[in-house]
Amino acid sequence: MALLEVDNLGTHFFTREGVLRAVDGISFSVERGQTLGIVGESGCGKSVTALSIMGLIPQPPAKIVSGTVMFDGTDLVQLPEKELEDLRGREIAMIFQDPMTCLNPTLTIGTQITETIRRHYDVSKNDARKKAIELLEEVQIPRAAERLDDYPHRFSGGMRQRVMIAIALSCDPKLLIADEPTTALDVTVQAAVLDLLDDLRQRHDMAMIIITHDMGVVAEAADDILVMYAGQIVEQASVLDLFDHPEHPYTEALLGALPQIEGEGIRDGRLTAIPGRPPDLISPPPACRFAPRCPYANANDTCTSVMPELREVRAGHWVRSAHPACERAGAAITAGAPA
Amino acid sequence: MAANPPATRTPLVGDDRATDDGAAGAPLRQASLWRDAWSRYVRNRAAVAAGVTFVLLVAFCLLWPIVSPYDPNHVDFALKSQPPSLEHPFGTDNFGRDMMTRTAVGGRVSMLIGFGATLAILLIGVAYGSISGFVGGRLDNALMRVLDTLYGLPGLPFAIIILAIFGTASKWTLMVALSVASWFTAARIVRGQIITLKENDYVRAAKAVGARWYRVLGRHLLPNTLGVLIIAIFLELPGVILGEAFLSFIGLGISPPNASWGQMAQEGRTVYRTSPHIIAVPSLAIATLILSANFIADGLRDALDPRTRET
Predict the structure, then answer these.
(1) Fold of A4-222
(2) Window A:174-193, CB contacts with B under 8 Å
(3) B26-59: burial string, b at 16+ Cβ within 10 Å, e else
């Protein structure tokens, strides 16, 4: 059995304007020790998915309306808040997008790390401190013992993200959810932090979910990729298969919008933008949610009348589209943007 | 995992650790939040002057009665209503009592009531406001509507009613009377702060590692309201001290022969034409305390508000 099995998860926001279906029936699983990447543009439901797993969605207005989140054999959706609190940090940890704001400015980082350890384990202050120093060394912060008593404002962005990672690792979680862990960082620092994350994942034998809008990040770190659009999964495949043979028009367009500076099939000239905007999730398109922006949708087919199911076009490659690349007439088009 | 030594790796170009002071540098000045605030406060000259005045006034009230040669309640009609002189720097009152000693003793009472009531206001305000803001939703709505209703109560008449219910006016009943109808603003300030603070990422991050609600409130939210609370202390204090003076002045506060500034001013009221110093001395003391508290609050607000930080 997989470590995490999400089945038909639906999280809706009940707003004054109507019901916003931020996450609309998604299913996936994460095996022990594996990394799953979730990609999609802003507002597609990536972060809400993560927060739903953690039980941290703001209630109200949000509510999990359907589905189960089986973690290690327990359904987190049904778990009472008290037990969920015990689980958070100890079994599932999360790191957030902006390391500049995720540390409390009034507490030293030592306090913030040891508090997490002492929240979940019955250890003395001294032992927690020793463990905190080890953790800081593990995330490669120089002079860890001295820096333990520093306040967050004395750390740079990349260093703070390392501290956040140390806090997340402090109780040896089985699953680490990284919500845009490198978005707020410089490109060079991004690479270092991603390296570190992958290194630590292997050493601690954790499973990891990396949420990002950056295809480059998942290409580097993930085993499997899940592409989300408008609250739904539109494509799911192993990382190589997805990058080599994207099937969904949306994934193709995402890859077409990605700059390439080296390697085969290098595109020169302008990057391709995806026309239009993501749909309003209060009243989404009736059938395929990508249809209004899709170059292959036309009035004669089912795109605007029937919601396509997520189907397996080949082993391990799932896609939700009436026009996956392999079924199109001009099937030669791969990563390139449709003309 | 503790057994694994950190992997050695060559630093990348532009490694984030290089931008920090890292292994290379001389030790940087340890700048804590409070030290930062202090350095900004001392740059504000009016606030420093107010702070010094405030400390001197408090020290005078605390220490002078100990070293003073006069008994503050010793009546001597031969020395009645003398203007300031070398023996009696603030003069004497209607009963020939030394005004300087009485001002100090009265100041103790006024300040005790002032600080006591301010503390009570803060305790009630913090409890009410933090629960309201932290829980949110319907409870918040209900608590705030109650507060709106209470806001309609005029403070001083309410205090008078409380005193009437108690029947006697002592330091303690005055504290209760002055705090019961004055904590509404403090509660609103704290509620607003908590509501803003609880949207912070570090609160979510704390929840993500399993922090319980009291931990989130006590560790991550309330300490961050401290700056605002300190300012609130110095903003509430003048009002409370003025309230005490007012109540004593109209005869509902501290009763003779015990002194408080308001009570002393009340005694001077009848003879303000012939011996103006009797009303002037306690009035000046009240004014000095209130002004300095206001300037301190002003300085603290600039010092503790991160938005005014220029460095």
Answers:
(1) Rossmann fold (3.40.50)
(2) 185-186, 188-189, 191-193
(3) eeeeeeeeeebbeebbeebeebeebbebbeebbe
